[in-house]
Amino acid sequence: MLINLFFFILSIVPSVLIVIWLRNRKKQNALYLQSCKSAIIRGTICVMPILVVSATFHLARNLLIRFIFPDMNALVSQAIYTFIVLAFSEELVKYIMFRHLLRKNISNYSLADITAFMVIIGTVFGLVEDIPYAIGATPSIMLIRGLTMGHVGYGFIMGWFYGKHIETGKKIYGIVAFGLPFLIHGLYDFSLSEELLKTNDNLAFIGLSLAVLDVVLIILMIRFFLISRKKERCTNQLIEKTIEVNL
């Protein structure tokens, strides 16, 4: 019991560090800190609406199978469950929470700010989601979930593309902001299902590949914020020098 608790705490350390790191990007910016706090709260409470939405879709799926398609193939049924009941419900609620956070003062946020808010929402939700998954899980599974952090990667994709949508006004970025994380999330969940693996054991490489992709997304996210930090410093220094010259 104590060993499992130790590994669970160890597994959530990377996610906690990401939230702290992103929150401290702009310690002196009150609006940014307030929005980060709001993102943390939204990432925590979005679990409840996700349960409601997923339960609704789950009921609709069961009614569909029972009354309209009673002979539905098990693989198709599982695909509907993983893509719609799980992935679509979670990404939809997170997306709504994210957009609601940005409804005010959006013009005061940079691309990096917008991306950070969504990453925080996804990371905090992932932390809350890990609690029930940790019950009965082995230490190795907890560590794998703690290192891959799928919701961090999905949050990065959603935040960056939505930020580009705001920055450029191009609708395609807004579509990709929701569609891409939904597809990756759904495919990852589906790749781990027994129904798919029963068809061919070799298909396990899909889940492994997507787990590697999650890690790559985290690396890209860290690189993005480090580069953004350097740009912000250069911009601030340029503004300060300009003020000094004018004075």
Describe this structure in words.
The protein is mainly alpha-helical. It has helices at residues 2-23, 30-45, 47-68, 74-101, 111-134, 139-148, 150-168, 171-191, 194-199, 204-246. Helix 1 (2-23) runs parallel beside helix 6, helix 3 packs antiparallel against helix 4 and helix 7 (150-168) packs across helix 10 (204-246). The longest helix is centred in the last third of the chain and has 43 residues, at 204-246. It is globular and about 60 Å long. The N and C termini lie far apart (65 Å). Residues 237-247 have low confidence and may be disordered.
- Which class best fits the helix and strand makeup? mainly alpha
Low-confidence stretches: 237-247
For the biggest sheet, the summary is:
none
Number of strands: 0
Q: Round the Cα radius of gyration to an integer and report it.
A: 20 Å
Instruction: Report the β-strand fraction as a percent range.
Output: under 5%
Beginning-to-end CA distance, first to last residue: 65 Å
Count of helix runs: 10
